[in-house]
């Protein structure tokens, strides 16, 4: 039985803090979403001239409403007091206990192990606290960074390839789906990520 989502969620890792969004985060999120380098693999989310503050506030409001309705759970990544990205689940199906997870991280904070840490806390909440069974990532053939992390760090294999299923700036891209199940999380992926995050 899936329980109701908490109103507020917060995790503190060695590198950053991960917490429920606030409307006060809107300007920092606007800057992240409006940066072309940050969004190079998420061009379908970009807007001509960048995001406006009102658009970001609307997005945050929908995410928070989705959390109240047990449909979404987004965590903002706080590094040295600043919002530097977001992770979590824009789609959660509590009936079939599955979800899709993703991340957007400001380019200035790449290479600091924050993506690994962010995914760890997101997955820990989803599997260990919420009780999900299956979590998937959907990325593209050109996103070698994400695919490399999923394959090399998590040891996941591609479950499905949707060939030429995404049209981005007049270019057809393949959609790659990777899946992690709860048993594999508990026996293999969780301890492996912990060993990378909590280095002795």
TrEMBL record:
Quote the Gene3D superfamilies the UniProt record gives.
3.40.630.30
Its lineage reads: Eukaryota, Fungi, Fungi incertae sedis, Mucoromycota, Mucoromycotina
What protein am I looking at?
A: N-acetyltransferase domain-containing protein
| Ranges where the N-acetyltransferase domain occurs | 27-183
Do you know which PANTHER family this protein is assigned to? Answer: RIBOSOMAL-PROTEIN-SERINE ACETYLTRANSFERASE
Record's GO cellular component terms: cytoplasm
List the molecular function annotations (GO) for this entry: protein N-terminal-serine acetyltransferase activity; protein-N-terminal-alanine acetyltransferase activity
Record InterPro entries:
Acyl_CoA_acyltransferase (IPR016181), GNAT_dom (IPR000182), Ribosomal_N-acetyltransferase (IPR051908)
Domain of life of the organism in this record? Eukaryota
- Taken from the record, one Pfam family name reads Acetyltransf_3
Entry's CDD domains? NAT_SF
């Amino acid at each position: 039985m899936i329980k109701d989502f908490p109103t507020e969620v917060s995790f503190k890792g060695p590198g950053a803090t991960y917490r429920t969004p606030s409307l006060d985060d809107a300007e920092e999120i606007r800057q992240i979403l409006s940066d072309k380098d940050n969004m190079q693999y998420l061009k379908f989310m970009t807007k001509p001239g960048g995001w406006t503050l009102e658009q970001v506030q609307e997005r945050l409001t929908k995410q928070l409403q989705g959390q109240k309705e047990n449909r979404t759970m987004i965590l903002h990544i706080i590094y040295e007091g600043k919002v530097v990205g977001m992770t979590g689940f824009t789609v959660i199906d509590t009936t079939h206990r599955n979800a899709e997870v993703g991340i957007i991280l400001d380019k200035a904070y790449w290479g600091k192990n924050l993506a690994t840490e962010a995914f760890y806390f997101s997955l820990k909440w989803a599997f260990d606290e919420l009780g999900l069974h299956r979590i998937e990532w959907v990325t593209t053939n050109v996103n070698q960074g994400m695919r490399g992390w999923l394959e090399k760090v998590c040891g996941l294999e591609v479950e499905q390839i949707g060939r030429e299923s995404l049209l981005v700036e007049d270019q057809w891209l393949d959609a790659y789906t990777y899946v992690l199940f709860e048993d594999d999380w508990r026996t293999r992926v969780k301890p492996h990520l912990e060993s990378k995050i909590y280095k002795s």
